[in-house]
Amino acid sequence: MTENIARMPPERFFSERFDVTPSLMERLLGSNLAGRVDDADIYLEYRVNEELVLEENVVKKASRHVSQGAGVRAQSGARTGYAHTDDLALKNLEEAARQARAIADRSGGSGVVAVAGRGRPHDLYTLAEPPIVTELARKLDLLRRIDAACRAADPRVRQVIVSLTSEEVVMLIATASGWTVGDVRPLTRLNITAIAEDGGRREIGGFGGGGRVPFDFYLEADRWKRFATEAARQATLKLSAIDAPAGTMTVVLGPGWPGILLHEAIGHGLEGDFNRKGVSAFAGRLGQKVASELVTVVDDGTIANRRGSLNVDDEGTPTGRNVLIENGILRGYMQDRLNARLMGQAPTGNGRRESYAHPPMPRMTNTFMLAGQDDPREILKAVSRGLYAVNFGGGQVDITSGKFVFSASEAYLIEDGEITKPVKGATLIGNGPDALTRVSRVGHDLALDEGVGTCGKDGQSVPVGVGLPTIRLDGMTVGGTAV
Amino acid sequence: MSADAALLADVLARATARGATAADGFLIEEQSFSASVRLGQVDTVTHSREQRLALRVFAGRASAAASTSDLSRESLERVVDEATALARVTAEDPHAGLPDAAELIEHVPDLQLEDHEGPEPTPEDKIELARRAEAAALAADPRITNSEGAEYFDRRAHYAYATSHGFARGYSTSSFGLTVSPVAAKDGEMQRDVWYSYARRRRALEDAESIGRTAATRALRRLGARKVKTAEVPVIFDPDTAASLLRSIAGAASGPSLYRRASFLLERLGTRIAAPSVTIVDDGLLPGALGSRPFDGEGLATRRTVLVGEGKLESYLLDSYSARKLGLASTHHASRDGAGVSVGTTNLMLRPGTTSPQDLIGSVKSGFYVTELIGFGVNGVTGDYSRGAAGMWIEDGRLAFPVEEVTVAGNLLEMFDRIEGIGNDLVLRDRVAAPTLKIARMVVAGD
Lengths: 483, 447
What we know:
The structure holds two protein chains of two kinds.
Chain A: H1 10-18, H2 22-33, E1 39-55, E2 58-76, E3 79-85, H3 90-101, E4 116-117, H4 136-153, E5 157-175, E6 179-198, E7 201-211, H5 223-239, E8 242-243, E9 246-253, H6 260-267, H7 272-276, E10 297-300, E11 321-326, E12 329-330, H8 337-343, E13 351-352, E14 361-362, E15 366-369, H9 376-381, E16 385-397, E17 403-415, E18 418-424, E19 426-431, H10 432-435, E20 439-442, E21 447-448, E22 454-457, E23 460-463, E24 465-468, E25 471-479
Parallel strand pairs in A: 4-6, 8-18, 9-16, 15-24
Antiparallel strand pairs in A: 1-2, 1-5, 2-3, 5-6, 6-7, 9-25, 10-11, 10-15, 11-12, 13-14, 16-17, 17-18, 17-19, 19-25, 20-25, 21-24, 22-23
Chain B: H1 3-17, E1 22-38, E2 41-59, E3 62-68, H2 73-89, H3 123-139, E4 144-163, E5 168-186, E6 189-192, E7 195-199, H4 208-220, E8 231-237, H5 239-252, H6 255-259, E9 280-283, E10 304-309, E11 312-313, H7 320-326, E12 334-337, E13 340-343, E14 348-350, H8 357-362, E15 366-374, E16 384-395, E17 398-411, H9 412-417, E18 419-422, E19 432-433, E20 437-445
Parallel strand pairs in B: 8-15, 14-19
Antiparallel strand pairs in B: 1-2, 1-4, 2-3, 4-5, 5-6, 5-7, 8-20, 9-10, 9-14, 10-11, 12-13, 15-16, 16-17, 17-20, 18-20
Helix pairs in contact in B: 1-2, 3-4
């Protein structure tokens, strides 16, 4: 029942399906936008999304969503005019272009822009069978097996909710600089929530993963079974968890998803818009020491099949591997075209948007710390009293003051070098510009997360990845209830 | 028949022809405008026009949902076909189905949700409002040195709902907003804060200069913020942060959390869950209010619901599916999103007390006045609560100095039980509102 939209190049897709041809985009950019503005582009998007949800042992919810639209942007100096429409008819595109231009300089003549196709710089996720086209019967069967495996993992698991989303986005951008580039982006995510009960106590735990991968990703090496077992373990573990300590202590973060620390503590603060405006706690600090010399952090949008990866960003700029912090020294910001131009820097391939209905902003892709030298077991052994946090819920940062928090969903006390009791409800809070100066050990076990991250900024959500080796942080504040 | 009603009728007829035993559709059309200004210069201006059809089909007791922003005939046909095909693969669920036709709203009341006062200002006039709000913030104090900008927005929307049993009704709304986010700086430290006004009518927006000045005052009072020592002390939540506690209560009282047994309010209906001074009401019928709506996402008439009455949990928040699952009746809280039907509140408010916020602060010898919360440390299953916070330290009944980089932690049931002071300062600034709340004690973690 699914048309295979992935089989067609984006240029042909939009021209055959909506009559939005390269020559039409040329005309819109030329007559309406070019010559009078510093930058202009038209972004076309078509998105199909499918969600299947199993709960109470059966698949009760199935939904399918289609959205399409165009965003037209004109920029003059620091000013942006943005108009979007979900009707790709010519008159709407013309009206959008007119509105976008309205805030740009009203003087100046018109120009003609020739739009040439530009190849994709990477090929990170071309799939033989994108997840959106995989037949429903196989997906439904997997959900049922996951449900059974999660319940079988522990008799205290009383409720299991499994959701599988599959998505395909076709995008095409034409710029006033005279080129177009398109991309087809598959994405899938499996999420398992388990609710466990024991006596009067009830707890919730979850696990999942995904990426720009085929459905078979979940079947490789019984990954689905590991996710199911892990969700059950997360929920049941908390049944015996004690209250988290409150106060300042040594914190050891495990590898992988705890990389959300980097995302909150420094990642957002290094986005170009906040620094151009001078409202980030990191503004004006390029070349300065902002972390321990053990710390090198990169944002890399070019890792094959990762959730945060893109062939080109949502402005058509090729993604890259950008070093943010090198041996403790701040090396670079993440930029979209507008902020790069205004700061006299090069775009870094970090211009992203939630959809055609949103103007792009500098955003992260996959953000992680490079591995160090230490044996993770030795890192733990050297801690007499502290907190070992290996899984997290969400986090948030105040860019301007630099204060950030993130909530541990799986954490343990460390007592005399040993991992002991699980604790619940621990929130870590810190100050971005000094959090990474507290890193005193870095393990050799760098891992990327399983592929579940979603980042929100100014009301726009985009998929991202994070990664971390085991690290030790001295003197972090833990917000629990046990004084 | 209006164009919306005709489109919905066509879609529902096709679903029935394709084998659906029942179906409903929600059509949203909206137009919006926003303009942001930073340091006096126009930053971003956006215009948009959007439409979206959310469809739900039933094949007997199995169901599926679909949505599309492409309202062309071919696309709609494809969406209907896909949804009916999906409904065939989902499991039978004895609780699935539309509400009874007899329960659907007959007469749609005029809740004054749409601004008819013309004429429509020009984009330049709208930009000017944002400019004035920001300028007032920048002029308020020399320590206001920078700004993340000010934003004006307006939005007009039309909602139409129809079912395969012949129901078709609609209503229109408008909303307006103005927000300012200045940055205060001193000795290398920067602090940002925000103030806002939202309203259904343009003229009900607060004065631009007043919004700007309030935002500046909020940013300025954060300068010099520091951590405090870890302690268990009285904690006072200002109205905005107190409102976030109400959202957590509403989440735990919502049908889907309950039938999944993922709520700390499970099996608590009719029991005391808060101090006797606490009454929480969800009132969707307030004329001109931001959360008001004449009917819910399933065509059921909106009501006033007492969620918590003098400390006792009096009602859950239910759509018709979760109500059937729990053996109760819908409370008319269905909310429509693309993925189907969920539960949403209308105007959710905690009833004000008689004490002024100053007197609440004055009653604390040593404690914490919270003005901002960040992070996601709320566990809806257990009520465990631990969030990052900023605000002011209270010493001898007075706001002494600003505080940041701390957490406040407890358990929501304990926190609501320990409410020992409720301010007289309830203002319905948004869809969820609370007065200042004093909680007898919580753990503040810092140094």
